[in-house]
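Many introductory courses stop at the sequence. We go one step further.
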Amino acid sequence: MADGHPPASPDATPRSGPLPHWSDPDDDVPTLVRGEGVRVYDDEDTEYLDFASQLYCVNAGHSDERIVEAMTEQASAIPYVSSSKHNDARSELAGRLAEVAPDGLSDVYFAVSGSEANEAAVQFARAQQDAPKVLTRWRSYHGGTYGAAALTGDPSTRATVERYAATSGSTKFLPPIPRAFDGATGEELAEQAADHLEFVIRNEGPDSIAAILTEPVGGTSGAFPAPPGYFERVRDLCDEYDILLISDEVIAGFGRCGDWFGIQREDVEPDIVTFAKGVTSAYAPLAGVLVNAELGESLREEGIDVGQTFAGHPVACAAGVAAMDAYDEDLLDNVRNLAPTLESELREMADARDAVTDVRGRGFLWAVEFADPDSGETFVDPWAGDEGENPVVEVVEAAAEKGVLVGGGRPNFQTIVAPPLCATEDDIREGVRVLNEVIGEVFD
């Protein structure tokens, strides 16, 4: 005990190997070794329907040969080019992104992860506006690094990262969800949520605010789309108070919600878009920031004094070009055609299960929320530090045991359904059928 640690048991076998992210000491983590389309297989050849696209990122499905071949060709030509230099694959992807981006966005700064893309976007916005603050929503997720976690509105993520040191410059506002505004819905919810945002802007001081950073559709925080008219009002507020609007498309982008970018369903033009995950269908790490012409010109004139070794990696950029080809060829249309089926199957399931209190989402990004049917309260309130048994965790585990992988939401009174964009109608029906079965087993 001299070193402060208890002596090891003589029979104890030390554990070693990779440390999984988002893990619990009691987790039984599978070892996945192969993937084909919407299915993955573990080291015992057990098959799973990947109804969460792993981490909402394998948009084109597993083992798409178009992407694999493009990566192989690039690796054979030149596997790495410094991020301070140009490369043909990098330039091609930047041009392709500008073609499909919301109007007015023309320049791309590449990064490695969504967290780093969001931090870069905030850095650019603060310098452009000469203002320190960024407004983000409670119940949001923007990353797990120190800067991105400060932007995140999910209490568990922020509390974990800021346990020993906090960052400044982030202020939170309420998301446009009914429970935050006395059950309001539709246009009434849009009006109340936008009025609340203006109240926060005015009380923080408009001149101190560089940007509003928000997901167009909530990601792991609950897949909630904004009510009609909300984003138009947010854009008006940004224009009125000279604040930049940043759309976090790390999950919502690249077909996940039925368009290239989720904000394109809202009929507004953001000043900045951040992206990651689906840009390469997660075949290689890649992220980035799309900026408008004014900000792009400013960055070119002033120069950029920071960077990342692997930002815009040529092999990742080649994967991005091939993934965009796949989305354009058939996957975007597949989401648009089958999103109504996914929605109807989930709503039918909700009607049959008393513990399911809400389903919501867009495209191939949906949340299933649970609560006690008698009290209407969630079974565990993670915001209040509840440590009781959470049956929603059992739903995720039981679905995996039956061969369907779904995601756990933040907070974890919900599950996230987000199949690869290549899923068929039969895949969708199978996934929801299994989810429906396990909900019945857990709650009935």
